[in-house]
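Protocol step 6 of 9: fold each sequence in the batch and record its structure tokens directly after the sequence line. For illustration, a two-sequence batch is reproduced in full.

Sequence one:
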Amino acid sequence: MVRATTVHTLVAGQKPRRALAVVGDRIAALSEDPHGLDGWITEGTTVIDEPGAAVLPAFDDTHTHLIFAGHGAHDVPVHQARAIGEFLDLIRQRAATTPEGQWIRTTSNWQELNLAERRMPTAAELDQASDRHPILVKRGAHNAVANTLALRLAGITEDTPTPPGGEIGRDEQGRLNGRLIDNAMGLVEHLLPAPDLRTRVAGLRQASRDYAATGIGTVRDAMVPLADLAVLRAAQQQGALHTRVRALVSTIGMTDPAQIEDLLDGMEDWRCTDDPLLRVWGVKFMLDGGLEAGATEQPYCDHPDFYGTLLWEPDALVRSVEAVVRRGWKVGTHAYGDRGVRNLLDAYQQVLDRNPGLPGGMLVMEHGGLADAEQRARAVALGIPVTVQQPLLHDTAEVEDGFWGPERVNNLFPAREWIDQGALVTGGSDFPVGAYGAMRSVWGMVTRQTVTGIRGPQHAITRDEALALHTTNATRLLGESHLRGTLTPGRLADLTIWPTDPTTCDTDQLRDLNPTRTLLGGQTVHAPEK
């Protein structure tokens, strides 16, 4: 039983309630009277009575990386550093307690502009932290720096050819500097030993608990290696998941339809899984790069002859996406720059033309970062939903200014226009590039605030619209509106309880506002520490 000042059901046109009853994992009844459901109370009933509080559905983060967050629970916490010296000291401390020859990996939720030197470390600098351990520094999902030993173990020399869809960094003299971008990261990453299952489950326990503490009840993890599905299952069986998980199986490093067919064969065991806590949503493709390599129609500001990187040949992408949908799985494809968006819509158009009658929502655009009115209209006409990630823009605006210039950065994630043109739009964080958190995302979409100030205020949306992107819209994308997204009898009791009403509080309060409680299926997964 929950009593509060306001229970926002998010049912269109319905007035707020004051009490909500839960039986089992479902909402059983609501009342406008805070004591209107007291007759439901029995000896075994837990009553949560929080005068002044507001209740909302638990939120979805429709594009994030729980797997990365789970790794980060045990990696070197370089996101705490404010200078390269501190960065190296943290790695050096880990090296002092790590047997020689064992790999050292760092957290990836940091930006180089937060360091005093405003750049990434080099292989030579990582060697100063340790030349007896292979080291891999990750930044987000698209960038890494390896030390000299790691490069040597991977067989990377100055003569190594650049892999398709990747880049091997070099200094001004043409020497390796340790930088690896997109598909080049796989040259090193495949060498890292997988942590033992106990460590992985512990990481997911901590990471999912942290998501829940910000009001996130369901994560759509947009890059899950096939082998990690077993890790997620172990975490679920051990009661270590504090959020629901909808997994997109990663195709990163793949460029051929035959590889996709092999991947799909490995997913067959998950086809009939109907666990409300853990499900496979579909397959994730990467069409273009990220901040440094998103495919654009106009050249980059810092390299006038560079237009970003496309990671797939058009025909291979069409045949691969088609293979996925013909097996009944959904597809989410990363398209960040405007040229990436155009190429993705071309591919999706061909898939739809060759597969008439394909159910709606099978093909999703992840990011659609830089999408003009014509591209948006085309996506809407094709029935393509889009996931946007305002926290990514918030944290990376200054970095992106250097690549794309202020005008293009101002126009990233045009949520206002996507909604006005009739798209199904959902919200996410893209952690570790952006910070996760229900109200942090809402605040960003309402204000368009970033680390460099307000960017593109014309793209801002209302508070109610921002809430919908993480609740009712999100469950539509996932095909779960009959289960979640609104607080109505028969729906899963996924709730968040807030110390102040997020729908009416001062906008400045939203950024760091977290719930006092998060419930999943009627069970508390986050509550105040006693």
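Sequence two, same batch, same settings:
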Amino acid sequence: MGQANSTETASSIEERELESQATSVGALPLLHNSFPKLADPLSNSIPLTSLQQCFSLKYTSISCEGVDLPDCFQGFLDQIAASITDTLFVPQKGGITWTEFVRGYVKGCGRMSASSLLNTLLRALALSAERAGCPMNLQFDSDEADSKTSGSISPGELGMIIWVCWIMSWNSRSSKCAMESEHANIPDLNHLIVSAVVSCMDNDNDVDVWNTDVCHLEAELSVGKIHTWAIRTVPNLAECFSNFINSRLKAATFEQPSGTETSVTMVVGTSSDTAWEYHLLTRGRAWAISLSQRSSISEEMLRICFSSNTDVIEESLLYRSYAHGKGLNRFWSNVDGYHGPLLLLLSATSGESSESSRKWIIGALTQQGFENRDAFYGSGGCLYSIFPVFHVFSASGKEQNYLYSHLHPAARAYEPHPKPVGIAFGGTVGHERIFIDEDFAKVTIQHHAADKTYQHGSLFPDQGYLPTEASVLDVEVWGLGGKKAKEIQDSYRNREALFTEQRRKVDLKTFASWEDSPEKMMMDLMASPNAVRREER
């Protein structure tokens, strides 16, 4: 009897501890709501098939821009639901009890390091690959999240992991009542795969990032180096897994009326694709940038990336040289008054001949809007290598020369040492890491040794030690401050337009009468200069 009470007490203590861990991430109400929807009322436990259906990611067809998916990817994706369930949850007799349900949730979505969460994701995906007949060379010491992971994966297997994370990320922001869709269209994510391969290979000079089909590259990437790359470059990658679990459990709380079928048909990544067709910021690049940020900027990037409404794209795109025209004045008329984070993307080409010139894209993320100053300013930011390789260069903390934007002064006075007119990021005045001239015709890239504000690294492939001058092809600026920042800018621009219109108009009522005007006095004086005039005092 005493042993039974002791066992019951230990079980209750364990249950309270698990519930406390779920409460710490604000998920206990979600678990309380979803458990009765998934559980069998008779056994008060969740059948394994019910939980697998909740995490299902089955599609009738899958495509990826610019890449031929491997034959095993369809089966790999079909096994995701069962692999997640087996990785996180331990079924008891009759199903998954409340305690095991909370334990499994904490294992996949509780408070843990990014490395531990990545381990859990890799364990689930490795199990899925094994069941699909394409096993990965990964070994795990134990079932614990913080266990040691060893082995290696190929670039093609890394591509499958990134593609699944994209689908999970999209699915997390899709309709709450739809659990499956017919077609999955994955955007071009090759820049992320190339980034990992270049970062993890011992000799990255062997990889021609312009011409190599990286997914079919014969190489083995150490899982330890993959961990380092993911945490440094895309720390939010593993959160696609936890966000997916949360979203599917939330969807399970919406009861489907009996006798009805879900009428929602989801097509991954095809909504408003035409709106992204000619932009530097594609869906894949926007998603990669969102994975590199841990602030509200990440959420805003995801809102833009997965939006099915073209109005969201139009209101976020503040400036594009292709549409608004090149030059600092055109640029300024579109970004002036925007007080919020901004993302500037620039495509350029360098090379003496058309055969040797290649297009590359770089970016700069600022924490605030642009101001007309003759010195560096800003409170934070980071630089990006966007295409063909994705890299992030965050602030180093040594200097604070984040942003420089200087227009021609309104009063053309003589300046013995005029400050450069243009936009710059990092470095010092005259030796900027990135400098865009006032005509938006040329961009100059300095070696990272001249910059102490941002971390070291090449902004484009084969960047040498000498400054590189390249021809600017296109420039885009995206506002990441949300609707409020855009509304404030619109109000500012409307006010400036009103002031400009008022300055153009001459209101005769504001002037004095003709009899009291200086012009009449001058005319009277010239008509009769000897006339005696009384001075009024």
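Proceed to step 7 once all outputs are recorded. Observation for sequence two: The CA atoms of residues 260 and 353 lie 64 Å apart.
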